[in-house]
Amino acid sequence: MSSKSAILEVCGWLEQAMDCIVMETALRCAISTKRQEKISASYIKPTSGFSYKQHFEKMIISVVGYRILEQAEIAVGPPIFLMESSLDYLVKLRNHYAHTHFDIANPYPKGLSTIPSPTVMRTHANTAFNGLNLMEIELKACGC
Length: 144
Hints:
This protein is mainly α and 144 residues long. The chain is 75% helix and 0% strand. The chain has five helices and no strands.
């Protein structure tokens, strides 16, 4: 049970962290309050996930656009690919465990034979934190 709790806790934290980065970036970029409300209503509130391409990228592009995002991604370099890989893995886990009770017939996501331990989850959380932190640093360096 602690493994499932760790999975859901890490995934929930990631969703919130991404939302915060988007809104804090909007504040740093001096986007008007009206536009910030639109970003929140149109991009953040309807987003219930934390994959990089499908969720975070769409939200952050609404604030900085493709050009700034690409500059930040290039500056971050390899850690962004490690983060994306961890996020893809975590999405798979979250999608399997978030809305189900333990099912003996289908106890693990496709392609896995165990539930990752809290220690493994901490490693993925640290990888995601590092990538998001570096992304935020580079967005600031780009003026946002």
